[in-house]
Design brief:
heterodimer; A: 3 domains; 67% helix; B: 24 helices; C2_dom (chain B)
Chain lengths: 362, 1105
């Protein structure tokens, strides 16, 4: 039994491979076995003991770094580990990377310590070691707690407090956004949607529907919430569901689609127009109620994408339809009394279209 | 000098949460110097407090300025309970106590707590205003500079060597005081840490006084140790070499001819002018000599025994001819010839030899003066008597000696030095005349027998005894100086073993600084001279104007940079010649004729404790050699008998160490050892000896034969086994020779740098002859399973791409390109002595481990390797290993091509390994998908990283990155780009005296750090390993912060003097003390670039490693 066996360098060097193994939740023993299998011992002509000792050094280092990684700016300021900025950034970035399968499972759950226990199930389901799952959960929770109450841009906040890359910060922003609005993502109906789908949709909503969107006039509130004024305005869209408007709208859309769609598709759309339109408008109106906001993905899937898919519409059919649906309203003069509604309609439909197309898995 | 210390506390950052309820801290700072305390305001509820305090001023007198550290204590204010300590900062003010007025300490210091480690940082500014001397009668040592660096610091010139300085201070150990029973561990640790700091200051101050009494202004090769004696206290010991240093800018009037010698030369200026002068006095130099000297004149520029500093040495007024004849007078000293032509003009040493002083023991230089010395009585009886005997014959020379002293106003002659010891390991060219061999002395003492433990007398007496013995040994070898001198102790309970080691040598200290300063050098033409080792018929005349010019450009190349174009070494085989008369060798030694000059005798092997001197020509590469012996010892039955046991055992241990070294040396096919370090450690039931050195092939010494196995083979089978062993030994020798480029050395002089060309052919034949005559080296084998032999052959080789050395300078054709990583390895394990091999394996394994750790840096050279062995517990061994991993480059010479191709291959394989690793990872199992991403990303990162990477990776970049074929030479443009783009406050640490690829611009001060760390939650910090790893990292962080606060970016001569770890895993508790030292410096890239203070960032490619 070795009591002490440590190696310390003036420069803190991270073994990229071991760091990966560590992040993936491999214990030092597992990592040693893994390296053994990969033939490192033979290549370097060393004993298992030496490899293991190296792993332990690195693992102890990671253990020490982990405390600083909880608050990345500390890692940048500290002097104990002399490392260059690129490496610091890389270490941070990798620490905050996650497996989308794992996060997909966590998504929609409350980020509370109680749910941390469920990581066992997540680990089992995704076959990713429990340690890694816990780290990912803790990271999400930590980032969430830090930025949920903050003013200003969500992505920027995450970038300054966690020094993450733009891309990763966006993903975190999406997760925080979803968690904050408590969007339902866990229903069985939604199981076919990937994490990336949600990130895309959430980012669209952040850009267009939240307080930080360009259209939003009051930037006082937080990025993590939807623009209340906008949601309020959305109620006005109710009129589009009125009989006369609906019929006229239908006619316009179908004629608009004539040159671009096959006859069959047009037929399907014609038949389902009423349902589709109602669903879209209902979702819009419902966004004013937080209960319905949560169910936005469920509604989109249940009321919009599923019926269309079962009717056999392709993705491009859907895109053509939504474009026509959006554009024809403008010509119809429905908002003659409320001209500002045009902007609201545009703001709503642009994002909705992108979201629907993203989750439209044919 | 008294002074005013001014301190400002600016801000803190990253403080720990001290108040659980708010998750914040109400911090304030106490600034303490001596007994005065100031406090800052309380900065409420902040982990990043901003104080921006006023200037706190302390008026302090000289002594405490040097002894006391400035103490800053960060506390958390609590309204109701006692204020909690967050941590402390100790600032050593000594670096500020120089004449340089603009020095400031400012920066972020880690707030260090002995119980919790580093907890945040504090930004402070410290200044010291010194008053000029108010009292002329008080001796102050303010302004005496200390250098751990064991050579003349780069950028300085040594004017005078004032001599060996030592001091010893004793104090109670707070851990053993009654008060320790009632105070908290933190208070106890802090008391101790403070004490160490104070002792160190006091020690330096006292040594400083000694140096200034000697007339010096600096201490180089300063080495400070703490002996933790336990009950009897703490002893702080310091030894060093007092010298007078000058900055050439202040010193040299610019020579009109632009020859103001390059730094390197300046530093060697401690030359032997005096010798010339005083040899001029004897009227009786034989005509033969004179004619010979004229001979010289016609062929070569005048020369002195000093290789390159000639431009300074000749007396200015003297016309060239005179100066040359002068050098001719010095000839007897430096040339191999005078022995035969024993003319009356030969220097004293020769006279004595000719006079056949009846006792071979003592060199004539030990004169009457010495015998009047009080400590002569301490010399062991037989030696003492020999000394007196010889003093009679020596006295005849008294006048000569006096002449020397008279002439050199400042430079004390070696005879006048009480202890002619030099703690440096490398010396100016021309300083060393002959190298004798290693001398060492050991003494076992009992700590509980000290009458008056608080007083230093007893220890002083012990060391005097040891030093006297060393001096005597040295004389036995016909030498008068000890180079590379070190002292070391090992303590186990009440037993203390004192050891001293050094290299006996004849040196040339006398030098008249006045003449060289007053008068500018006469002409550039005398800059170069041919090696005196050559026969006169050498037709080459070396008037190297280029050299002079390049020297004039004034780039202050450091000595280590011996590979640079203008610094081609001039070999001198004289150094290898035995200083004693062949028939009066102090010990049985095989002497043979010098392979270079073919005149004088050389030993078959040469052991030294110094760095490879430039003048000695070597072949091939250097190799790391280590002898390890572990002997069981009966457990202590009581002080006296235990001490006897140990002292009886020591000679056997040393003998074994020696024979191991010798065997290994032969196995390497080499004949010289540099940097030999012998460490003896005493434990409760073990006695361990480890000797570490760098083996080389010295050209002047005979080629070592392949060891021949001899043994009594009684049966056929045994005989076969012997043959088998013989075969393996031969194979191993050949392999080693190949590895170290020693296969084609038969031609005496192989290096193109050697100016010798003509007679290499006849040399070769001669050499063969002589080596054929040599007795073969026989390894006795008792039986075919002899542990010795088995262990010898088991010794594993370093992995491909690694070289390991324990010296500062790199012998052979490779030179260092850049630092990659300074490392510390601490290893501790239970050890039960079972067989010899298991003990060997510990070390072998450790080396392998290091190589594996650094595998991604290969090809590289591990330099300055230092092993420290302790036996902290009865059945435990602790080894600390420090060193630096450097990338290498080959000196462009004939072997270069070969090397570069090798390198290329190697690199490819390395790359191959990484690639396959990556692919292996990505193939892994399905859980690993992020890895895949990273593997690819990583390798892309690597490539870009490498492109930006500094010199070290240059070769790699070219072979692997940009696929540039063939040309593995590093392109310097790259380096430049890198330097400009990547400025960051890196601090480089290195055990070497220099940082490869950089030049030292300024020395900022000597640092001696003592840290104590304790943990009562060992499991929580990751066990013993986690604790140690963290602590070592914290120590380095502290060192770096201190260096950076002085505006420095490097610490050279880094040494871990002490690492005492006490663990108590059952109590979940552990304590460790670490003492490190070094010289803070400002370095700049060697390429003449607009002064860039920051060093390179080395690890843009580090993610790989």
């Amino acid at each position: 039994m070795t009591a002490v066996d440590v190696f310390v360098g003036n420069y803190t060097l991270i073994d990229s491979e071991l760091y990966g193994l560590w992040l993936n939740g491999y214990s030092a023993q597992d990592a040693a076995l893994f390296l053994q299998k990969s033939g490192v011992l033979q290549k370097a002509d060393v004993s298992m003991e030496i490899v293991y000792s190296d792993i332990q050094d690195q693992y102890r280092l990671f253990f020490g770094l982990e405390k600083l990684l909880q608050s990345p700016p500390k890692l940048i300021d500290q002097q104990i580990y002399q490392m260059d900025t690129d490496m610091q950034r890389q270490v941070i970035e990798r620490y905050y990377q996650f497996d989308s399968v794992v996060v997909r499972e966590i998504l929609g759950r409350k980020l509370s310590s109680r749910n941390r226990k469920d990581m066992d199930d997540v680990s089992e389901k995704t076959r990713i070691p429990i340690r890694s799952c816990r780290r990912q959960f803790d990271n999400l929770k930590r980032v969430f707690k830090t930025v949920e109450e903050m003013m200003g841009s969500l992505v920027e906040n995450i970038k300054t407090h966690y020094l993450l890359s733009e891309d990763l910060a966006r993903q975190y922003a999406a997760i925080v956004f979803i968690a904050n609005n408590r969007f339902e993502t866990g229903k069985k109906k939604l199981s076919h949607l990937s994490f990336e789908d949600f990130v895309f949709c959430a980012n669209q909503m952040i850009t267009n529907w939240s307080y930080s969107s360009v259209e939003c006039t009051v930037h006082a509130d937080m990025d993590v919430d939807l623009d209340r004024g906008f949601l309020h305005d959305l109620r006005e869209l109710k009129m589009i569901s009125e009989k006369e408007v609906l019929d006229e709208h239908k006619g316009q859309v179908i004629s608009h689609l004539k040159p671009s769609l096959t006859k069959k598709s047009r037929q399907v759309l014609e038949e389902s127009f009423k349902n589709n339109s109602k669903a879209i408008i209902n979702i819009a109106c419902g966004l004013n109620h937080s209960k319905d906001v949560r169910d936005i993905f469920v509604d989109l899937v249940e009321k919009v994408t599923e019926p269309c898919m079962s009717a056999g519409l392709s993705g491009s059919d859907m895109e053509a339809f939504l474009n026509a649906y959006k554009d024809t309203i403008v010509r119809m003069d429905v908002f003659r009394l409320q001209p500002h509604m045009l902007a609201v309609w545009d703001r709503y439909m642009k994002t909705l279209k992108l979201c629907v197309l993203q989750i439209y898995h044919t | 000098m008294p002074g005013k210390v001014k301190v400002r506390v600016l801000a803190g950052r990253g403080l720990p949460v001290m108040d659980r309820s708010t998750d914040l801290t109400d911090a304030y700072v106490e600034v303490r110097f001596g007994t005065d305390v100031f406090k800052t305001d309380i900065c409420k509820k902040s982990l990043n407090p901003q104080w921006n305090s006023e200037w706190f001023k302390f008026e302090v007198e000289d002594e405490s300025l040097q002894d006391e550290p400035l103490e800053l204590r960060v506390l958390d204010h609590d309204t109701y309970s006692a204020n909690d300590a967050i941590g402390k900062i100790y600032v050593d003010l000594n670096p500020l106590l120089t004449k340089d007025p603009l020095k400031v300490i400012s920066g972020w210091f880690p707030i260090y707590d002995t119980m919790h480690g580093i907890r945040g940082e504090l930004n402070i500014i410290v200044k010291v205003d010194l008053f000029s001397d108010v009292n002329k009668f008080r001796q102050s040592s303010c302004g005496i500079q200390f250098f751990s660096t064991a050579e003349v610091p780069s950028g300085y010139r040594m004017q005078v060597i004032n001599g060996f300085v030592e001091e010893l201070v004793v104090n109670d150990d707070p851990e053993y005081q009654w008060i320790d029973k009632i105070r908290t561990p933190r208070a106890s640790n802090e008391a101790r840490q403070r004490l160490f700091s104070k002792l160190s200051g006091e020690l330096q101050r006292k040594i400083g006084v000694k140096v200034s009494e000697l007339g010096g202004n600096a201490v180089i090769g300063y080495c400070q140790c703490f002996d933790l004696e336990g009950e009897s206290g703490i002893v702080a010991r310091g030894i060093g070499t007092g010298v007078t240093l000058v900055r050439p800018s202040q010193m040299m009037p610019p020579s009109p001819l632009g020859v103001s010698p390059q730094f390197k030369d300046m530093r060697h200026a401690v030359n032997s002018l005096n010798y010339f002068n005083h040899h001029q006095t004897p009227p009786s130099f034989g005509p033969s000599l004179t004619s010979r000297s004229h001979h010289h004149l016609t062929m070569t520029p005048p020369h002195t025994p000093v290789r390159k500093s000639v431009s300074i040495s000749p007396p200015p007024s003297a016309p060239p001819i005179v100066s040359s004849s002068q050098s001719a007078f010095s000839f007897p000293f430096s040339s191999p010839l005078p022995e035969e032509s024993a003319t009356p003009s030969s220097p004293p040493s020769q006279i004595i030899r000719c006079a056949t002083s009846p006792v071979k023991v003592v060199s004539p230089h030990t004169q009457v003066r010495r015998s009047s010395d009080s400590d002569v009585s301490n010399i062991t009886p037989p030696k003492g008597s020999s000394l007196t005997e010889s003093s009679g014959s020596g006295s005849g020379l008294g006048s000569g000696g006096k002449a020397v002293t008279k002439l050199s106003a400042q430079q004390p002659s070696i005879e006048l030095m009480e202890y002619p010891f030099f703690t440096m390991t490398s010396f100016p060219v021309g300083f060393i005349i002959h190298l004798g061999g290693v001398v060492s002395a050991k003494s076992v003492k009992l700590l509980d027998k000290i009458h008056n433990p608080e007083e230093p007398e007893t220890r002083d007496a012990w060391w005097t005894e040891i030093r006297t013995e060393i001096r005597t040994h040295c004389r036995t070898m016909g030498c008068h100086a000890v180079l590379g001198y070190t002292e070391h102790t090992t303590i186990c309970d009440e037993i203390i073993v004192l050891c001293a080691t050094g290299t006996a040598a004849r040196v040339n200290v006398t030098y008249d600084p006045a003449s060289s300063t007053r008068i500018p050098p006469p002409a550039p033409a005398v800059v170069q001279e041919k090696p005196p080792t050559e026969k006169e018929r050498d037709k080459k005349l070396y008037v190297d104007v280029n050299l002079a010019n390049s020297a004039a450009q004034g780039s202050l190349h450091a000595l280590y940079d011996h590979s640079s174009d203008d610094g081609a070494p001039f070999y001198n085989c004289l150094l290898c010649h035995v200083p004693y008369k062949p028939n009066s060798a102090p010990f049985p030694v095989n002497l043979s004729v010098c392979a270079i000059c073919r005149k004088r005798k050389v030993p078959d092997v040469l052991f030294t404790t110094i760095d490879p001197p430039q003048e000695i020509q070597t072949h091939g590469k250097g190799a790391f050699i280590q002898a390890r012996v572990c002997r069981p010892k009966p457990k202590s039955k009581g002080g006296e008998s235990n001490a006897k046991e140990i002292s009886d055992c020591l000679p056997f241990l040393e003998y074994e160490l020696h024979s191991q070294l010798m065997n290994k040396l032969k196995l390497f096919g080499m004949n010289g050892l540099y940097g030999l370090k012998m460490q003896i450690t005493v434990g409760e039931s073990l006695l361990v000896g480890v000797a570490t050195a760098t083996a080389v092939f010295i050209a002047a010494l005979p080629i070592p034969p392949i060891p021949r196995v001899s043994g009594q083979a009684t049966t056929e089978e045994e005989n076969n086994r012997l043959l088998e062993i013989q075969k393996r030994i031969s194979e191993r020798v050949m392999k080693n020779r190949e590895k170290n480029d020693l296969l084609h050395i038969d031609t005496g002089q192989a290096s193109p740098r050697s100016i010798v060309t003509d007679d290499s052919d006849d040399d070769a034949s001669d050499l063969d002859l002589s080596s054929g005559n040599k007795e073969t080296f026989v390894i006795e084998v008792d039986d075919a399973n002899d542990e010795n032999i088995v262990a010898l052959l088991r010794e594993s080789q370093l992995p491909e791409g690694f070289t390991m050395l324990n010296t500062h300078k790199i012998p052979g054709s490779t030179s260092l390109a850049a630092n990659l990583q300074m490392f510390t390895q601490v290893w501790r394990q239970e050890y039960f002595p079972t067989s010899r091999s298991s003990f060997m394996d510990i070390f072998e394994n450790l080396v392998k481990k290091i190589c594996y750790k650094l595998r991604r840096m290969s090809p590289c050279c591990l330099c300055g390797i230092d092993f420290g062995v302790e036996i902290p517990e009865e059945k435990e061994i602790q080894i600390t290993l420090t060193g630096v991993c450097c990338s290498t480059e080959n000196v462009p010479d004939s072997v270069f091509e070969l090397h570069s191709t090798n390198k290329g291959n190697l690199l490819k394989t390395v790359q191959g390994v990484t690639n396959s690793n990556n692919s292996g990872t990505s193939e892994g199992d399905d859980m690993m998908f992020t890895m895949e991403e990273y593997a690819s990303e990583g390798s892309v990162g690597n490539l870009t990283g490498q492109v930006k990477a500094p010199l070290l990776r240059q070769t790699k970049v070219e072979t692997t990155g940009t696929k540039m074929e063939g040309n593995t030479r590093r392109s310097l443009e790259h380096v430049h780009v890198h330097n400009i783009h990547k400025l960051k406050s890196w601090v480089e640490l290195t055990p070497l005296h220099y940082i490869p690829g950089f030049k030292i611009e300024r020395y900022l001060g000597n640092y001696n750090f003592f840290f104590i760390r304790e943990s009562t939650s060992l499991r929580e910090v990751g066990g013993q390993g986690g604790f140690m790893q963290m602590f070592v990292a914290e120590v380095m962080a502290n060192v770096r912060a201190n260096v950076a606060s002085l505006g420095g970016n490097g610490l050279v001569s880094y040494r871990m003097n002490q690492c005492v770890l006490m663990c108590n895993p059952h109590k979940n508790q552990s304590q460790c003390l670490i003492n490190v030292s070094g010289d803070a410096v400002v370095v700049a890239p060697e390429e003449s670039f607009p002064i860039v203070v920051e060093p390179l960032r080395k690890n843009s490619d580090s993610p790989v490693t």
